[in-house]
Write a structure and sequence with these properties.
By secondary structure, this protein is mainly alpha-helical. It folds into two domains: 236 residues, Cation efflux protein transmembrane domain (Alpha-lytic protease prodomain-like), CATH 1.20.1510; 71 residues, Alpha-Beta Plaits (2-Layer Sandwich), CATH 3.30.70. Helix content is 68%, strand content 9%. It is built from nine helices and three strands. A hairpin with a 5-residue loop joins strand 1 and strand 2. The two termini are 33 Å apart.
Amino acid sequence: MHAHDLAEWRHDHTFDSGNIAGERSTRLVMWITAAMMGVEIAAGWHYNSMALLADGWHMSSHVVAIGLSAFAYAAARRHAGDPRFAFGTWKIEVLGGFASAVFLLLIAALMVWGSAARLLQPEPIHYPEALAVAALGLAVNLGCALILGSAHHHDAGHGHEHADEHAHGHHGHHHDLNLKSAYLHVIADAATSVAAIVALAGGWWLGWAWLDPVMGIVGAVVVAVWARGLIRDTSKVLLDREMDHPVVDEIREVIAERGAASETLIADLHVWRVGRATYACALSIVTHDAQLTPRQVREWLSVHEEVVHATIEIHRCEVR
């Protein structure tokens, strides 16, 4: 891909309609979650309910994390045309997802700490009021999940459109990791709301006061598992760990097939992702073909449209 073509690709792919839908949905969910956070904290103080107060402050951490995801979208959009970003600003969103996942792990640790403290020193809970507010919190979380889920389906549909354009559809199944991080925060909130409702109901009707902190620990484990998966996905992109992706084998196959007659071989190959489903590669080739040019090699690679930029180095051997 030439410099002009790469510039056009950066303009078209850096911030597409899927990004815009994700940004709008994430920002809306941030404000809804912030409003519910205020309600829970106020109710916690008013009803002297430590459970509600703790859940409200727990929700505040999610507001910060979801706000971070929204900021990542805004930063990626704002700098989309900045030529200093050689391959666009998509990785700002991935970085936002990674930071959000780390924050999610911190939340899980705080949940364990708070739950353990409550096991050792139980606090009185106004069960009817706490249950009502917890139920409202669950409804809000489910509504936020629907908002982000709708944006996720838009993103997935956008990816499938790209997949249909490509000869190999499995390259289109890359989803928005920043949107996924915000979605996981909302689902984590919903899970903790369900756990809180179960715990409050058990404490109110059965007198099991210990159930509330135990459910807090269970919820923390679930949150930690989700966060670990998101950290794995985002760090893979940020650290350019893509050499096990099918596109690498496809590049090797096309060079082996098209260069067989001239004994053209790959001496060195590096592949990394520069978009949700787009890749760049640096390729060093050894050949006996005196006429082979980098442009010709790029034409070989053009059958795989997900390879949007290729740096080609050719080493010629003496013809035997």
